[in-house]
Design goal:
Length: 128
């Protein structure tokens, strides 16, 4: 399950992810991170059965956590199955099925937004 974790460095430099792994024993896969001296935003993937435990631990460390059900969304009324998103996606989220219709592996999405920019019909959006 994907979780978007945001935190501020105002209260100190608590290692939120390391603390959570140590406290819960749950291995966390960091898929994307932007952290500077003031704040951070990290997209992580954890086993679904451990998501609630991880969320509690991170909130206890002062982070905000948002569960991402569907990271990238396709408007089927706008999508023309052109495949422009396929070549720009670094995670192979998009593919054409045997009938040449665009399909998605949403669980692979890391919210980079490259597909949104590449789509000529504005049929893709990122939920954050």
């Amino acid at each position: 399950m994907k979780l978007l974790v945001t935190f501020s460095r105002k209260g100190g430099h608590e290692p939120v992810i390391a603390r959570t792994v140590k406290e819960t024993g749950v291995l966390i896969n960091v898929e994307r991170a932007h952290i500077d001296s003031h704040a951070g935003e990290v997209l992580i993937d954890v086993p679904a059965e451990s998501a609630e435990t991880v969320c509690r631990s991170m909130v206890g460390a002062g982070a905000n956590v948002k569960v991402l059900e569907d990271a990238v969304v396709r408007d089927e009324n706008e999508c023309i199955d052109c495949g422009a998103c396929i070549s720009v996606c670094p995670q192979d989220v998009f593919f054409l099925d045997e009938n040449w219709h665009l399909q998605l592996h949403v669980e692979r999405c890391v919210l980079c937004g490259k597909c949104v920019v590449a789509c000529p019909h504005n049929a893709l959006s990122i939920l954050e």
